[in-house]
Amino acid sequence: MNNIIEEKVKTWLSRQDLDLDIKEELARLWAASLKGDLAAQEEISDRFYRELSFGTGGLRGKLGAGTNRMNRYSVEKTTMGLVAYIKENCLGGSVAIGYDSRNKSTEFAEIIAKIITGAGLDAFLYDTLMPAPALSFAVRLHGCSMGIMVTASHNPAEYNGYKVYNNRGCQVSEDEANKILALVEKQEWFASPLKCESGKLTMMGEASKNAYYDAVYGESTGIDCGLVSVAYTPLNGAGLVPVLEILKRIGVRDLYLVPEQKYPDGDFPTCPYPNPEKKEALALGLALAENKKTDLLLATDPDSDRLGVAVLHQGDYHLPTGNQIGVLLTDYICHIRKTNETMPKNPYVVRTVVTTKMGDEICKKYGVRVATTLTGFKYIGAIIGEEEDQGREDDYIFGYEESYGYLKGTYVRDKDGVNAAMLVCEMVAYYKKEGKTLIDRLDELHQEYGYYRNHLLDFQFLGAKGMETMAAIMEDLRKNPFKEVHGHSVTGFVDYEEGISLPPSNLVEFIMEKDRGFAVRPSGTEPKLKIYIFGTGESSEEVGAFLEEMSQALSQWIKNKEV
């Protein structure tokens, strides 16, 4: 532990106004570290070796004492920097604020509102927890200059975070985030927030919430869902009321809720890692679905912007990946719009560069343009805004990413699990009338377009050492790119940090024959390195073998780097 960190700890502990829970937590750790407890010393270093910074999902970190933690002081410092950004750029006079079910979310939202109004700006604060897409909607509904969502999305229970949205309801770009961060860094820790109290606080109640529900329902494909049975879990998050409202509107009558995960609970007692991408998070939901033999299990994450799905097929429940649901929805929406003769003249779909290319083939059949962008739904939202500026708002028909994010419609600029829950139910109802499940339809698509499967590897790198290891791995990949992996030749290499017609990003991609390959990037929201493997082939077995070979080879390569 270096002297700088020791001075920071002593400064925190010397403050008389430090929150009692923060002070007691830090004092226990400090005392243990002074006694030679190596784990405590490492924990102290991790808490103070840096300040939290913006990633693809904004500010995010573990709750607790320290500059590298989410606490009231990091929230105050960040909000004061955001206020400075708004005023320096003359962006207007109001900010929308939302929050989910995580521990401290309500408290942080109230602190943010006090600082905003104390700085002479108006604040629009939801009167209860709401999904992240509802915050994106509120920014535009109330003409706000910016928005703040207190959430850590699908991260483990000990996390919370702070997403920042611009006046278009889109998460801020890298350029905007860097400018905000520069002003945040100029703010002093423990500085007294402005208290001129000239700003107005407006609580967003039923009118704002109903406007959001109406906008979601406005994207319905018009299929009655009265014959679809659904099990649903909000994973103790913010999705309960919004999802139930929308499922009611589309006619779902046979609906079952996971009782242990029904109500908001920031401890997520039955699911400490509330990520609907992970089968472990769906255990109770699957048990309920199997008991009731429902057609479908739906699961939203704590801020309800992601949707996980399980489908009953031939007596068993199958868990389509985010890529597969994205492909199914792309096909379904294109088919419905063509059938109903509502396809715009110049339609387009947006996906991220690490999302399956199978949807591109479907779009080609329907004459739909595909725009690709960087990882993170904010980039999809940015493209929607850019197209809107060119008078092409009505041309957008769908956007999706491999990490279970989907959006039909332009009423928000973020992925929306409530919107996705509605669309998946309608899609299931449509194919059920034809005697098919979503798995049947996916098989049909594979027969028509070939087999596409992706696989995600993620490797955890904790603390300062972990950050250094990830940086070293990315540098090595750039300086010494693979020529082949397990006998599969690499035919192309793309470094997205160089721009490549998109904003610079810490992402590299290795291209192989047959539209195969893999991409590597550090997560912007977790201490993880992610490897996305793209497989194609004439059969499921061929693709599966390729993915297995690549997974083993790349996992071993990472393991060797960790030594």
N- and C-termini, Cα separation: 22 Å
Helices, by number, come to 17
Question: Can you summarize the main beta sheet?
Answer: 6 strands, mixed
User: Which class of secondary structure composition applies to the elements?
Assistant: alpha/beta
Q: How many structural domains? A: 4
- The shape, in one word, is globular
* CATH class assignment of the largest domain: Alpha Beta
Order of strands, widest sheet? 1-5-4-2-3-6
Specify the CATH homologous superfamily of the largest domain.
Alpha-D-Glucose-1,6-Bisphosphate, subunit A, domain 3
Give the proportion of residues in helices: 40-55%
So, CATH architecture of the largest domain? Answer: 3-Layer(aba) Sandwich
In short:
The protein has 563 residues and is of the alpha/beta class.
If you had to describe this structure to a student in words, what would you say it looks like?
The protein is built from 17 helices and 22 strands. It is of the alpha/beta class and 563 residues long. The radius of gyration is 24 Å and the shape is globular. It folds into four domains: 1-49, no CATH class; 53-204, Alpha-D-Glucose-1,6-Bisphosphate, Chain A, domain 3 (3-Layer(aba) Sandwich), CATH 3.40.120; 214-448, Alpha-D-Glucose-1,6-Bisphosphate, Chain A, domain 3 (3-Layer(aba) Sandwich), CATH 3.40.120; 451-562, 2-Layer Sandwich (TATA-Binding Protein).
